[in-house]
Amino acid sequence: MVKSIANCLAIFAIVMCHQVGLGQGLMTPGVGAVNRSMAGAATGNSVDSAGAMFFNPATLTGVDDNHIVWSIEVPFINEQVSSSAFGSSGQTSAEVGIFPLATTAFVYRLESLPEITLGLGMFSAGGLFGNYPADETNPILSPPPPTGAGVGQAFNLLSLQQFTPTIAGQITERFSLGLSPIITLATLQLSPVSLVAPDDANGDGTFSYPSAIGTHPHYGLGFQIGGYYTMESGLNLGFSYKSPNWLEKIKVNASDELGRPRALTFDLDLPPIYSLGMSYEGIPQWLIAADVRYVDYESVAVLSDSGFNPDGSVRGVGWESVWSLSLGLQKEFSETCSVRIGWFTTEDPVPNAVAAFNIGSPAYYQHILSAGVSKRFTDFFSTHFTYYHSPKSEVSGPFVTPGGAIPNSNVTDSVDSHAILMSLAFDY
After folding, report:
1. How far apart, in whole angstroms, are the C-alpha atoms of residue 137 and residue 322?
2. What is the pLDDT of residues 64-108, one digit of tens each?
3. Is the pLDDT of residue 222 over 90?
């Protein structure tokens, strides 16, 4: 019985990370067609208003014209989980489907105060969707104890929508400052959820974790501040700080093994992000941009802690803080047509020691390659198209229980993706 309980705890702890991260940890590395085509490089250039408000509000002073941009991103994700334990092995594909991601950016420069620029950004700032069917041939997705040793069907949904009212001011001819509050709307649904203690309400000796489906959207608040400096040589520099986004305590209406009501609560905040950027536009019709970003996962307890609490709940997923690099290149072929390419790469936030607690969803895409084109049709209307691809990334490690790793076991999750984006921009 003790072994059954330990195995159950371990498997649900492993699935817990499938519930937490996809992409660059929790946050997207870029927003909108133009910023995505530049691999997210936006801290030290003013190519795009959406990227400006998401990564450095100060660069909004360099955006030309009052305008509004609508962008849609359609990712195609291929995700698989494989496991081997207890003498069996198998592989299962997630039924992710297609979930469009939207970005809107609105820019207005005051006529009476031309040095002041106002903006409003609405972003799909991060999240995930995972939907694995039960699979008797795959140990981790086999039926829960006592019938099997897995979790059965596994489902999770995390949606992070952010709203950023922005003000940017031209302090001197060369230097700008920007500030924006960040309002987050988070929707989180997990089945099962191992952030809370399991229960054995039916007294069969096998503990199980509840589903956390009966919840509502939760709000969070943070802020972002940035600076932007331009030089006559064509070299531009930028910096920004994005504070933690403090979400209200997540509350869920759940039930125990007997169907009796069980109220669940747990915390999930978003990490602070530090960005440095530069760009060079001293060569006519060319722009080269680079961003270096630091995502401080270790400052958020549920992301940095690992292991089990005495009640059987999981303390966290054991992530480390990471650096990432975004490189973008733009070429203007005419006043109405330009093309861009980009490369994004990031460190792995998941150390080998806790790889098993992060199976179900790699916490990052190690590389993303992107390309895009923009076309202006009239003085007030333009379109932008982008494609990006992330090659396969994997997280792999032994099957770990509270008593240690199971000999000759392994759990691996792999993911690769393609995406297409389109933006419509209207000047006014």
Report:
1. 35
2. 889 999 999 999 988 888 888 888 889 988 888 888 999 999 999
3. yes
Q: How confident is the model at residue 163 (pLDDT cuts 50, 70, 90)?
A: very high
What pLDDT score was predicted for residue 9?
39
**pTM for the complete prediction?**
0.89
Between CA 400 and CA 346, with CA 304 as vertex, the angle to 5 degrees is: 95
Q: Distance between CA 23 and CA 128 in Å, rounded?
A: 8
Most confident of 292-301, 347-356, 391-400: 292-301
User: Domains, the chain, ranges and CATH?
Assistant: 2-427 (2.40.160.60)
Helix (H), strand (E) at residue 106: strand 101-109
Q: For residue 386, what are its two tokens?
A: 């982008």
Task: For CA atoms 345, 346, 352, 356, give the dihedral sign.
Answer: negative
| Contact yes or no for 273/295 (Cβ under 8 A) | yes
Q: What is the dihedral of CA 64, 242, 125, 387, to 10 degrees?
A: 50
Instruction: Count Cβ atoms below 10 Å from residue 42 Cβ, excluding itself.
Output: 33
d(CA 162, CA 183): 6
Query: Is the CB of residue 157 less than 8 Å from the CB of residue 188?
Result: yes
Please answer whether residues 55 and 352 qualify as being in contact, where contact means their C-beta atoms are separated by less than 8 angstroms.
no
Distance CA 353, CA 283 (A): 47
Q: How many CB atoms lie within 10 A of CB 369?
A: 15
